[in-house]
């Protein structure tokens, strides 16, 4: 677990301090529209990564609790399984909502109405 955390942290730092400045380096003639899409891609990727990580953590905790309940009371396995499936579907729907918002930011450009 500690090794995975270390690799994730180092990857995030590498992305933050090496890749992002190189991607945001613009010439004098480029428009602000390119900058918007670069930022939208970076924020969308970060949001999806965070949502997927939190969703996976929540699903693993729910599954662990359900299996613990089934092992303590095997006769309640049907009811626990139904509740588990509904809970996992709701957790996964939150990740799908983040995906939809990210796709809107990438393809629709909702802020162009504010710019004029």
Residues in helix, %: over 70%
Helix count, DSSP H or I runs of 4 or more residues:
4
The helix/strand order is: HHHH
- In terms of DSSP E residues, the strand content is under 5%
- Uncertain segments: none
The Cα radius of gyration reads: 20 Å
Mean pLDDT: 78
Largest sheet entry: none
Morphology: elongated
Going by helix content, strand content and strand pairing, the class is mainly alpha
Explain this structure to me?
The chain is mainly alpha-helical and 116 residues long. Helices cover 85% and strands 0% of the residues. It has four helices and no strands. The protein has helices at 2-24, 32-72, 77-107, 112-115. It is elongated, with a radius of gyration of 20 Å. The relative contact order is 0.10. The model has no long low-confidence stretch (mean pLDDT 78).
Summarize the structure.
This protein has 4 helices and no strands. It has helices spanning 2-24, 32-72, 77-107, 112-115.
